[in-house]
Each structure stands twice: as structure tokens, then as C-alpha cells.
Write a structure and sequence with these properties.
The protein has about 300 residues and is α+β, with helices and mostly antiparallel strands. The chain is built from seven helices and ten strands. The protein is elongated, with a radius of gyration of 31 Å.
Amino acid sequence: MNRRSKGAGPEPYDFRRPTKLSREHIRTLQIAYETFARQFTTILTTSLRAVSQVTLLSIEQFTYDEYIASLASPTIIAKVSMEPLPGTAIVEFSLSIAMTSIDHLLGGSGGPQPERPLTDIETPLLQSLFSRVLGELRYAFEGIASIRPQLAGIEYNPQFVQAGGASDPVIVASFEMRVGAEECVATVCLPLGMIFPKLQGDRTDVQLSPAQRAAREAAHRNLVAGLESVPLDVAVRFQPMHMRPEELISLRPGDVVTLNHPATQPLAVTAAGITFAHAVPGSQGSRLACLVVAPAKEEDR
């Protein structure tokens, strides 16, 4: 049984979590994954000596929690490091496909397989096959990034895999995978933060037309103009002072608290806790005011 529908159709769009992948990003990944699928097919066919096929179905963005929830249990979940890229990738396919592949590796003809974790003899066989598959993943991604995929471990229960936070965005490529009479939907999951900077590269401005570049510059000017008119809370402050809790508790109306601010030192003009100017207190008519001045010599750097 496939765990995801193969047919194309309308997909719900969550405006609270818009996709960050453009058509150019999807196309770049599609080329890489189609290359990977062809090489994967070749490895399975030559290694297992059985009719095999791997075909790219879709590339979608989910949260890590949504991806994990979509997986069956048990299943084969290979955790993969993608040095020098940060984070952990996941290559996942059904346990029945894994058992069928091992059966063919040992000279069997396939057929119904037991649903159980791999034995100590079967695990190295699958790991050896995986090492060849990851080599082809490295080759397929050469146009995007230079990576060194390494198998970091195999799990069977998706809930035991900690490869990201629940709300972290991930890019999931789904493949139709067939080995003999067995088939499943296999997936490759990459954290968005791992691959998105490589998809961006330095090519964004090159791909813009003159009209698009002019629209971007106009939007930037409008944004700057809008920010310049936003009201901010500004404070004029003395230097802070330290008091013990018992002194604070004992304060009464009429008490005098001595400030540590030197009379010759200007006050700090701050916004959002950041000092951006210095000033001396004064008045303008009947209103209190301050005059912006140069900082004191001991602060002047």
C-alpha cells in the first residue's frame, strides 16, 4: 500500500506558513532528484538482479512534525549527515522493500517478506547498498552543493528519530520505488535551513528582468520611507545605579536617592535600550527639552 496519493490534484495552501521555494528552486531540485532516481534505479537493478524502478513523484515543503506523522511504522529510516552542510537528512522507504532487496542480494526470488527489524547479518548488507546510493546522491547534488553524505544510523520507528524541531520546515521529495513485485513511496527529507542557502546562491539578481529589478528597488524605497515615519519611544536617561533589595523596600516618600551620574556628563538618549546620542537637559518655553551634544571625553572613542 502506498502511503501517499500518486495522483495530481489541488493542494491546500496555508497562508500562515507560506512556502519559501520558488519555481527556480523547485526546478533545480527536480533536476538533481531526477538524476538521483535514474542512478538509484541503475544501482538496484545491477545489485539485486531484479527489475527495479525509482521515479520522482513530487517535491513539497512540510514541517518536520507533518513529515514524521505521514510515515508508516515500522519503516526504514536512514539518518544521513550531509557534510559540510548542517543538520541531518532522512532517506526513508518501506521495510518490505528493504527485506525484498536483501532477499535478492542473497540470491532469493523475492516474494512475501516478514515484517521485523533487520538482523545483525542483514543490516550490513543494507548499509553496503546504502553507501552506493549515497554516492549517487552526492553526484546528483554536485550542481547545488559539494556534499559528503554519510549514513549515521538506521531506525524503524519515526517517533524515535530526532532530526529536527517539530515546526522546522523541511523539503520532502517523494519517489515511486519498485523492486520486483514490491513497491512503495520512498522519501528524501532535507531540512530547509540545510539546502535553502545553496539554492539561493548568488544567482537571484542575475535571474531578474529589468522590470523586476526596478520593482524590487521601488519596494525597497517604499519600505525605507515607511520605516522612517514609524514613531519610536525615545528616553533621556541618567546612568543606572545599584541598590540592594533591602534599600528598595525601605524607600519612603521624601527619601533622597543619590545618583551616580556626574554633573559634567551628558545624559544618554536611547531607543529600544540602544544609546544613539547624548544630550543635556534644558527647556524650550514652558516645556522640558534636551539639547543633543557630543559625548563626554571619557566616552568619546
